[in-house]
Model the fold of this input.
Amino acid sequence: MIFKRLTHGLALALLLTPVAAPAADQAAGAKPATTQDDEFSEANQLLFLQDHLTQIAYPARYVYARVKSGSADDFDDRITMTTHNLPDSDAKHVAFSQTQTEPGQQIDDVENARGNPLIMVFLQSDVLELAEATGGHWRYFQKQMKLALENTAQVEPVTVTFQGKPVDGRRISVKPYADDPQRRQALGRYVGKTYEFILSDQVPGNIVELRTSVPAEGNAGEPQIERLTLQSIEEIDIQG
Done:
């Protein structure tokens, strides 16, 4: 199983653009703590408004492990993200490849990237898979995720290990579908799906791990876990 190609008008910019909290929610105190620029939540700022890639001056190859367990379509994949410098800019041209690949399902290149585009690719693939699994529309899942990241996401400091050394990071946790009782029956066990984003500005590309968990279906089942974890980064030459 690989990342699905973005289809049905699901443009890259849609999930990249965060949604500010409705005024009523802000008045009710529903919005979580923010940084000094409180137009968007801290979760959205960390995920989408940071220059994750510009801290590395050289062209680089990032390798991420993407593993899924507890489902009928388990997989163990590797995603390679290659960044090339752009002339007179610290933004990057980003290209992707996967160890498991099928025609028409490659990830498109991203131009002028500053944030790590793998975050939005991961989320958009998840949106499409949820729509397919439940018979729902991808726009519903996209909207719920955007609102949850703005209004209910929890952010906490964590210490993680990268290349054998402890580094400081942030864990963003969110359950986008748990507070929609009208769709509880239609979503089934996916109503309890949780997401964790572990980021660190001491790690190239900032992504330490992206993780989703779907509760087990029945007493005999097991949770469905998907993890995307940075494995390595290396400098490459301009032809690399």
Notes: The chain has six helices and nine strands. The two ends are 26 Å apart (CA to CA).
